[in-house]
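Researcher: Predict the fold of RDD family protein.
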Amino acid sequence: MSQQPSGWYDDPSQPDMLRYWDGVSWTNHTAPKKSPTASQSTIGLPQQARSDQASADRTGAAAPTPTTPVPQGSGWQSQSQTPQYYQQAPANAQWMYNIRTTADGIPLASWGRRLGAWFIDGIIISLVGGAVSWAATPRMGQLFSEMMTAAEANDSARLTAIQGELTGPALQFSFILWLLTTAYCLVFWTTTAQTPGKMALGISVRRAAEPGPLPLGVAVLRRLVPLAGQFVPFLSLLDGLWPLWDDKRQALHDKVAGTQVVQGKQPRKQA
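Model: Structure tokens for RDD family protein follow.
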């Protein structure tokens, strides 16, 4: 039973509706299928079919008729048909007021899901990255042990001296932890487009212009704002809260990299 990429497909329970498939299961997001622009639609079509349609629109030629796998129940069953999708839902379609989407119609992840994914990833990074960083900076452990001994002996002079000595190891610890966090993000963003936190919450990151895992250059750009947040007060907080009022639900690091966080999985890159 194969998995299909997330997108808008014919609703198996309502022939005149489309329903959003998040890559794992059907969601509650539906939209009317009928529209004046149905013949020019790309919503729910595979990436190749979207490219064919775009080429046909530019040249005036007829686009090839796609054969689309249609989700059935919890899995997929391949069926030959001519699906009628639309470019934009009627103005009175309720889902347009409740769901913000990418330019190609994929629902954006809510701020709450993004926060939940960040929390899960934070726990993983704190446990694994913290342990590795601590092991890589043995001087940090020695100084903390000496600090505890000095505190028990009420040796304030030694405590003051240790605090000064901690600066170097603390910076080293922070740098190693940041490198591990960056590697964690880059590996998942460029392969599955989902960190473990995003996997757990059913969301993924993609370029705003097209689906799929992030290219390495885009992934690196996405880490620049978190890096700057280490040195600029309140930048990290502002970055995290920005999707709450942004019309594209982008954080500042999404703005820099041109990315968006969406519901569902991303299609894998073709070999």
